[in-house]
């Protein structure tokens, strides 16, 4: 699952695409290789990798048995609703991407949707979602692909801000339970909380002043050769950025709703308010801890068990929920993204398929 707040590593992503993409764009042989060999190879490789990850998940046999048994009851409706929310989740992300990339070149919603899912497929085996840049860039025309890096960073920052805001609220709400369970962490709790508030304040200031920051540095830099990569950010005003942040909040809400539904489906009888508080802290932890997407499910399950275990002894249900949400929001979109990549000209001139 794409964590609602995880943002690709800005520096490593920028350097990678900047160093290698201009070379690839000038090489017809590499164009043929990417268009007709890499797509199918990526599909096969990702499919095998995804299959191996699913097979190695803890409690997998019990998970399938539990799901099959639940289909015989009215709870099957909840699973179906959680599956349907996959499209809503990535729909909000695609809408956000459509608005962002529209500042460079207008795109259709379905094109944005395919670009987002293609980014998921690339990011499965790369750390910190770096691959999301590549997947989204292949749907842009030549000359405009590198410009989308800064747009992706802004979109990721909006999601990170959302995760941090609700995560801090969750930490405050759970303070009593956390310190009762882990009294040795009293000092660390205060340190982490105030540290997060400081980072959140700085991130919010940068986010809502990104245009001014770009304009300021453009005046002082001796060379403006690379400023075209961020020139679109100069036109981002508070109203536009608030809209992006609102869409990020809606997507966050979809993630939360999926967890509420699936905890009920797997028999974890915890109040909605407790689930929201716990999962907001889980999302926050996953957003700040570097990881590879395919390894995320283990970390997600461990953190969820520690925190949700404060309210429920149903460890199996908690673990099954974590695995199922991860599968729904990462595995299925990644497979769909590879299918889209089979039909796209990765280095086409117009960026549209």
TrEMBL record:
The chain crosses the membrane at residues 32-51, 72-92, 112-130, 151-174, 186-210, 244-266, 272-295, 316-342. InterPro entries: L-PG_synthase/AglD (IPR022791). It is found in: Cell membrane. It is a multi-pass membrane protein. Keywords: Cell membrane, Membrane, Transmembrane, Transmembrane helix. It comes from the Bacteria. GO terms for cellular component: plasma membrane. Pfam families: LPG_synthase_TM (PF03706). This is Flippase-like domain-containing protein.
């Amino acid at each position: 699952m794409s964590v609602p707040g995880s943002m690709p590593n800005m520096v490593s992503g920028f350097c990678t695409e900047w160093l290698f993409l201009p070379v690839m764009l000038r090489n017809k042989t590499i164009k043929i290789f990417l268009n007709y060999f890499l797509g199918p190879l990526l599909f096969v490789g990702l499919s095998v990798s995804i299959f191996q990850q699913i097979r190695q998940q803890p409690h997998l046999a019990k998970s399938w048995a539990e799901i099959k048994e639940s289909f015989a009851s009215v709870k099957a409706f909840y699973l179906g609703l959680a599956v349907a929310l996959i499209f809503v989740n990535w729909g909000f992300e695609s809408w956000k991407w459509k608005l962002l990339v529209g500042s460079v070149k207008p795109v259709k919603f379905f094109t944005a949707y395919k670009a987002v899912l293609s980014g998921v497929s690339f990011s499965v085996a790369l750390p910190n979602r770096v691959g999301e840049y590549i997947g989204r860039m292949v749907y842009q025309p030549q000359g405009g692909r590198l410009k989308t890096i800064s747009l992706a960073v802004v979109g990721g920052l909006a999601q990170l801000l959302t995760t941090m805001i609700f995560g801090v609220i969750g930490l405050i709400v759970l303070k009593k339970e956390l310190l009762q369970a882990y009294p040795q962490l009293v000092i660390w709790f205060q340190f982490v909380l105030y540290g997060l508030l400081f980072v959140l304040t700085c991130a919010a200031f940068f986010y809502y002043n990104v245009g001014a920051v770009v304009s300021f540095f453009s005046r002082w830099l001796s060379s403006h050769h690379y400023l075209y990569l961020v020139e679109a950010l100069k036109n981002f005003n508070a109203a536009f950025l608030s809209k992006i942040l609102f869409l990020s909040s809606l997507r966050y809400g979809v993630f939360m709703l999926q967890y509420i539904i699936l905890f009920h489906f797997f028999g974890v009888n915890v109040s909605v308010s407790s689930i929201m508080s716990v999962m907001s802290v889980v999302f926050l932890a996953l957003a700040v801890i570097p990881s590879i997407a395919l390894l995320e499910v283990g970390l997600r399950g461990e953190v969820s068990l520690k925190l949700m275990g404060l309210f429920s002894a149903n460890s199996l249900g908690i673990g099954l929920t974590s695995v199922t949400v991860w599968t729904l929001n990462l595995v299925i979109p990644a497979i769909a993204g590879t299918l889209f990549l089979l039909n796209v000209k990765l280095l086409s001139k117009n960026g549209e398929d």
